[in-house]
Amino acid sequence: MAASLVFRLHDRGPELVREVLLERGWEEYDEGEREEEDWNLYWRGSAFRTSEYHNLLPWQRLNHHPKTIGITRKDCLARNLRRMKAALGSSLYDFSPTVFILPNDYTRFLAEYNKLRLVRGPYWICKPVDLSRGRGIFIFEDIRDLAYDCSVIVQRYISNPLLISGYKFDLRIYVCVKSFHPLTVYIHQEGLVRFSTEKYNLSSLHNLYAHLTNTSINKFGPFYRTDKGKVGQGCKWTMSKFRHFLHSLDINELLLWQRISNIVTLTLLTIAPSVPSCPNCVELFGFDILIDAKFKPWLLEVNYSPALTLDCQADITVKKGLIGDLIDLMNYTAIDGLRERAYQKHRYKQPCFNTNHASHISIPVISQLKEPKLQRKRRALASNLTHNRSLHVSEVTNHDNTETEAEISGEADASSSIPDTHGSQRPVRIPVEENTALNGQHIPPLRVGDFIRTFPFNRATLKASQHKLDVTAIIQELHKLTGQLALGRLDKTKRRREEEVKKNTEGEDDFDSLLWGPKDPPLLIELIENRQKIKE
Ligand code: ADP
């Protein structure tokens, strides 16, 4: 018999995580009733202590990797991107606006300010380094308006954003780093488009409702509930609605998605070598991307613990599915429910955390009990789960008539059930098995629910991420792929793609990857072949 899986929430939140897990038959940890180690997932909004990583037991997972502050604090991100620019060339890392950390960089900022002022008067945005939700941010053109009493970053203001009906917006992209060693990254197909609620206007820099896209600010704006042209009411769209909008424009949409995906990979590469290995951790980051009028995507910041509050229908549609898929990605198996017995029997005190990031500690209880014969079948089922999951997401109707997908509850198909001692059926997720086809190297599933694997995306990147991270090789591969996508538009052949997916789920040894972003993501191999045909 396997006991229920148990989750533990720090400070009793977020409510959405509780809701999703309870719906799946998990139980909430109660310290009065359970032993200290008797939980499977500990979720907290803030960072875990080092000792919590060190004491982690095989059946326990945490929702943060250690030491990711290098990208989630504005000044650390600025420093890391600067370092990468210096090492690898500024053209590769040109997706982040020029930035200065004040007060330290004040002289350098002054020089740049004066230099640019001679050509054309650029705008700047000043942000406290460790605040979020738009707090303390202001935009200025004249250095005399720059005033700060804490550590801040001053960044070039992207003054030509792409507008929809005259309103500025940015994209909230949800990124799950399943592992840093080897680097394994998934990006969720759904995300949010966050609008400002007053029309964009460079002659009113002080109007935060026109220049900032934070929901925490705009939901209090006087025009929040007003109809705002194509934007509609409120201040959010789902990514599906944005995709629909993109289709109406004559652009190389695939290239845009790939460039955003590149930003995610290149940003993670800045810290990947220095994050200690902790196989029992996952992390959900919120990447904020602004698209300018020339369709160039810019990285604004990376959020640690992106907000999981449900302010509107778009939030419900996106975030509920997101958390469900994240849980699936963690790949809990029935055996995780045996934590107590395993604990008593083996007295596991071997930590799952390792500061020597190159080596990996396996999870003995889980790996010993895997049934290799079932691997293919499970992988195929996991792939089915993918489709059912995205259908489940759209059970919620979008208030602004977004194109919605078919409405089916995919839960029953997506789960297997194992009877407990009382004979009742408890949902247990089907394990998402990894393909071990390539010389014994694990290939993570190409898709879990609406999470698309974006790294590694081919054999070369898999190899480059296995031991010591080979950043140069990875960058070469990114260049190659982006170049291929830049060649022109895709002639999509749906049947062909389906055949490829089928082949993949049947256990072929090929390394397939999907292109994150577009509706019905195509296989990369198909894109590359099409590009080659266009060239010939
Ligand atoms: P916070 O963590 O406080 O949300 P962000 O860096 O995300 O800080 O900035 C808040 C908002 O300000 C963004 O969502 C975006 O609308 C706007 N913004 C931030 N930086 C820039 C920039 N360089 N150019 C244009 N707009 C920006």
TrEMBL record:
Family matches, as InterPro entries: TTL/TTLL_fam
Domain of life, source organism: Eukaryota
Molecular function as annotated in GO: ATP binding; tubulin binding; tubulin-glutamic acid ligase activity
Residue stretches of biased makeup (Basic and acidic residues): 496-506
Membrane-traversing stretches: none
Pfam families with a match to the protein in the record: TTL
Keyword set, alphabetical order: ATP-binding, Ligase, Nucleotide-binding
GO biological processes: microtubule cytoskeleton organization
The UniProt record lists the keyword Flavoprotein: no
Recorded GO CC terms: ciliary basal body
Entry keyword annotation includes Transmembrane: no
Region annotated Disordered, chain positions: 393-426, 495-517
Biased composition (Polar residues): 414-424
UniProt cross-references to PANTHER family, sorted A to Z: TUBULIN POLYGLUTAMYLASE, TUBULIN POLYGLUTAMYLASE TTLL2-RELATED
Protein name: Tubulin tyrosine ligase like 2
